[in-house]
Specification:
The complex is a heterodimer of chains A (261) and B (364).
Chain A lengths: L1 H25 L5 H12 L7 H14 L6 H24 L7 H30 L12 H30 L8 H19 L3 H18 L2 H6 L4 H13 L6 H5 L4
Helix pairs in contact in A: 2-4, 2-5, 3-4, 3-5, 4-6, 4-8, 5-6, 6-7, 7-8
Chain B lengths: L1 H23 L6 H17 L4 E3 L12 E3 L3 H8 L6 H26 L8 H37 L10 H34 L2 H4 L3 H24 L11 H24 L15 H28 L1 H6 L5 H7 L3 H27 L3
Antiparallel strand pairs in B: 1-2
Helix pairs in contact in B: 2-5, 4-6, 4-8, 5-6, 6-8, 8-9, 8-10, 9-13, 10-13
The chains are: A mainly alpha (261), B mainly alpha (364).
């Protein structure tokens, strides 16, 4: 009887130790899941130079002059798509050099879930656009926008969710201070603020302005020269220090957030 | 039975404790042990001074390299005539080797002059690695000298071969020698990096604002940039012989850029503070802090560069995929991202840092 209790106790202890060992061995400790998702969207998905992207952009460009009262919505969509392109390129290059931590864990699902939903909506849009092409002229009826806009808005919401999460992950997990510094943090925080403001904006004209600002910031600031050169650039360091200290009260704030500093 | 189990358990605990204790104190290596290894290395170098000699190397591009390799009359002539198959023996292999060795010679006394009771625990921990790497390097000297002698004898016997650069046997011999040289240079770099770590661990930079020591330490760590790509990655296989592709052109452009930056690096490395050439600034404590902070950031970026180089794996791209990046991407889908990161490091981060370092330490 006594031997049986000892034996069972030993088995339980061994089982507990093995459980801890296996959980430790196999628990996620790298940022590969997010990096793989970003790379697949940028290299093979709706942000790559493939026919799906071409179809959506062609459609949007056509609608820019043919959507009547919805022109601002189309412009906003064009600006967001362009911004996602730039942001995607930036994260594709840098996200694989990041480390796992609690911020990564808290945002991981939003990145993957956001990109998955956006991929589905992009495919829906492409299917719809292709099946509604008028004859061989590649022109579309203005009314098609009513259907596409629903998918496009979901596409934007999903992308914003993914890019806000990436904007949280990168400053907390980037391994190098040459490429993850006060400058990149200010830029990504600024873009995140715009993307968050989008959720609360009611007017299309405001949303369009937000999309323009995000696109301008990504285009102007997320260049190799600025990102890699920031630590050696006294002018930018002064401006970013002022922005970091004074926030919205900084004299640089307006221009910085508009992507025109 | 019970006693037996207790004895076995006690033995296990004692063994584990001993292993932990030994690991914690660097296996009991003292500064005298390090000095003994260093002196033994010097003796081996001296025994082979017909191949590895210290002295004036004005005939080479780097004017203040203490160590010069004599490759034998025939090969030396090719090297000095700028033959493209041989210049890397002078411009990369010998330069990196010389800089690593110069650092060791100039800074070993920082460690060996210390008494063991003066060492902090961090320095003690580094001594074992330092001693091992000195011994490792000493062991590799004879292999290198043998390889050089084989090459020399072969060349002496084939001195009249027309168009040696087109002779596959001669080129194969040269490549075999380069592979031996890669191992030799890498061991010298590892030894100098381990010495850097030991010197840094002493806390000397916090106590003595010696700009030469600090500059040497930074330069010594930067040498890894040149060693990793040119010598370890490309130097271990016949890169030039593989297919001409866009990927190969991009890697070749990186090697060319590295060669340019080597000149800047050498110029900073050779700045000195002796009475006749007081070329180094006196830095304020604030400037020293800034320099240390910037260097730490750069070295972190250098780690990312090394990670990217490992991820790119130039040898597999060349040997297994004949430089066909499209094919290679099926196996290594991140290869292009790694290549871009390496490019940004060599084209932007490295020259920016070298310019910064030069401005910080060079007297106007």
């Amino acid at each position: 009887m006594k031997k049986g209790i000892i034996f069972t106790t030993i088995i339980l202890i061994v089982a507990a130790i093995l459980t801890v060992v296996f959980v430790t061995l196999f628990k996620e400790r790298d940022t590969d899941a997010v990096a793989d998702k970003v790379i697949s969207v940028v290299d093979e998905g709706y942000l790559s130079e493939d026919t799906d992207k071409e179809t959506i952009e062609e459609y949007l460009n056509y609608m820019r002059s043919n959507a009547g009262a919805s022109t601002d919505e189309v412009r906003m969509s064009i600006n967001f798509y362009s911004a996602y392109d730039k942001l995607g390129d930036f994260y594709r290059e840098h996200i694989i050099f990041t480390s796992y931590n609690s911020t990564y864990r808290a945002n991981r699902d939003d990145v993957i879930g956001g990109f998955n939903t956006a991929t589905d909506r992009a495919e829906d849009m492409v299917d719809y656009i292709v099946s509604n092409t008028a004859g061989e002229s590649e022109s579309w009826e203005a009314r098609t926008w009513d259907d596409v806009r629903v998918m496009m808005f979901e596409f934007i919401e999903a992308n914003n969710r993914a890019f806000i999460a990436l904007g949280n992950i990168y400053p907390a997990c980037g391994n190098s201070e040459i490429t993850n510094n006060d400058f990149t943090t200010a830029v990504l925080n600024g873009i995140n603020k715009h993307l968050s403001d989008y959720q609360n904006a009611d007017e299309t004209i405001d949303k369009n302005q937000i999309a323009t600002n995000v696109n301008n910031m990504a285009t102007k600031y997320l260049t190799d020269e600025l990102v890699y050169g920031y630590l050696y650039n006294a002018t930018w360091q002064t401006q970013i220090a002022d922005l970091t200290t004074n926030g919205e009260q900084s004299g640089y704030y307006g221009a910085f957030m508009a992507g025109t500093l | 039975m019970k006693k037996k189990i207790i004895s076995i358990l006690s033995l296990c605990v004692i063994s584990i404790a001993s292993v932990i204790a030994l690991a914690g104190c660097g296996g009991g290596v003292t500064t005298a042990d390090v000095l003994e290894s260093y002196n033994a290395m010097q003796e081996i170098l001296l025994e082979n001074d017909s191949v590895l000699n210290k002295g004036d190397t004005a005939s080479y591009r780097n004017t203040k390299n203490y160590y010069q390799i004599s490759y034998g009359d025939v090969v030396d002539e090719y090297i000095q005539s700028d033959d493209e198959n041989y210049v890397d023996l002078r411009d990369y292999y010998n330069s990196v080797f010389s800089f690593a060795m110069s650092y060791v010679d100039e800074n070993i006394t920082v460690i060996t002059n210390l008494k063991d009771e003066e060492l902090n625990s961090e320095t003690k921990r580094t001594l074992s690695d330092l001693k091992d790497s000195i011994d490792d390097f000493s062991d590799s000297i004879q292999n290198f000298v043998d390889a050089r002698n084989r090459l020399d004898i072969y060349y002496q016997n084939n001195v009249n071969v027309a168009n040696p650069a087109e002779n596959s046997e001669i080129m194969a011999r040269l490549r075999a020698f380069k592979r031996e040289y890669v191992d030799f240079v890498d061991k010298s770099v590892q030894m100098s990096l381990n010495l850097s770590n030991s010197v840094e661990a002493t806390g000397i930079y916090e106590d003595v604002a010696n700009v030469r020591l600090i500059k040497n330490n930074i330069c010594n760590k930067v040498i890894r940039v040149y060693n990793e790509l040119y010598i370890l990655d490309v130097g271990t296989f016949n890169f030039a012989e593989y297919q001409d592709t866009n990927a190969k052109a991009r890697i070749q452009a990186l090697l060319d850029e590295l060669q340019n930056s080597m000149a800047d690096y050498s110029s900073i490395m050779q700045l000195n503070d002796d009475n006749n050439h007081n070329e180094l600034k006196d830095l304020t404590p604030e400037e020293l802090d800034e320099l240390t902070e910037m260097t730490d950031k750069f070295l972190t970026e250098m780690d990312v560069y090394v990670e990217a180089l490992d991820g790119l794996d130039i040898q597999t791209l060349g040997v297994d995929y004949n430089n066909d990046m499209e094919e290679y991407l099926n196996r290594n889908e991140r290869a292009l991202i790694y290549l871009e990161r390496v490019e940004n490091f060599i084209n932007i981060s490295l020259p920016d840092f070298l310019e910064y370092l030069d401005n910080m330490v060079r007297r106007a």
